[in-house]
Amino acid sequence: MEPKSNSAVSRHGAVLFGRRRGPKLRPARRRLLDDVLPRLRADLPNDALSSRPLDLYPPHAQDDLWLEVGFGGGEHLLAVAEANPHIAFLGCEPFVNGVARLLSGLVGAGLADPAAGNVRIYPDDARDLIAALPEASVGRAFILFPDPWPKSRHHKRRLVNKDVLDGLARTMKNGAELRIATDHRAYCRWILARILTHTEFAWTNGHRRSWASRPPDWPGTRYEQKAAAAGRDSVYLIFRRRARTKRGDIAGSP
After folding, report:
1. What is the pLDDT of residues 121-147, one digit of tens each?
2. d(CA 52, CA 134)
3. With contact defined as beta carbons under 8 Å apart, do 50 and 132 qualify?
4. Is residue 82 included in any domain, yes or no?
């Protein structure tokens, strides 16, 4: 259901996203929120950090679980879900218009049937979903073109922060990939400063020829297109979750 309020409220304190709603939705997309979203919505268990089985996904999508935090209009999520039918996908996005846009794409691609599709949606704060996922359950995670919150007083709202990285490190499998894209150079430096000092992640594409170009298996987004039209280059960062030791700590080598 579409939230009644347009304000962003979070039990975590700092709010990492902006408004909940944009322009008034067309009736067809409002119906998607009413009729399709309840079938694809990922409902969380009452107790965070409980063992969350993946049987909410159809059997054909059990090879792995991939997570996209802040999927925007859903272009990337839809493309990778179509290309990987045996992977289960979780997408987080609190912006109602973006959720409706993805739902429209899923219907058009024939992925809106819970028994046949491989996408589930959490239309709220991604931190709650990350906290509810089992340890070492995610094989790949995406954070693509997050809001850079450029004003200094808003930096606390930036999605890539220690708490979120800690949560992702807990839920990601050994060797799992974390893919991050941005067209904001100052935010890129912010991201690197936090991940390169985080013991659970290793940067795997540190050469300019690697991070300056989008890999072939990395679908584009409309945000990327808008950045290019405005003359801004995008960067595509790939990190790997380091292996855990037997005691649950992180191995010292990449």
Report:
1. 999 989 999 998 989 999 999 999 998
2. 6
3. yes
4. yes
Report yes or no on 177 lying in a domain.
yes
Q: What is the CATH number of the domain that holds 116?
A: 3.40.50.150
Structural domain count, the chain? 1
DSSP string, 94-161: --HHHHHHHHHHHHHTT--STTT--EEEE-S-HHHHHHHSPTT-EEEEEEES-----SGGGGGG-SSS
Q: Which two tokens stand for residue 47?
A: 């107790």
CA atoms of 190 and 185, how far apart (whole Å): 9
Q: Which of 147, 163, 217, 249 is an active site residue? A: 147
Pairwise CA distance, residues 229 & 157, whole Å: 26
> Collapsing DSSP states into helix, strand and coil, what is residue 174?
strand
Residues with Cβ within 8 Å of residue 48, at least 6 apart in sequence: 128, 131, 132
Nearest to 177 by CA among 86, 254, 103, 239: 239
Whether 181 is covered by a domain: the verdict is yes
Residue 44 lies in domain: 34-241
125 is a catalytic site residue: no
Q: What is the pLDDT of residues 181-214, one digit of tens each?
A: 999 999 999 999 999 999 999 999 988 788 999 9
Please tell me the least confidently modeled range out of 32-46, 52-66, 172-186: 52-66
Q: Is residue 9 part of a domain?
A: no
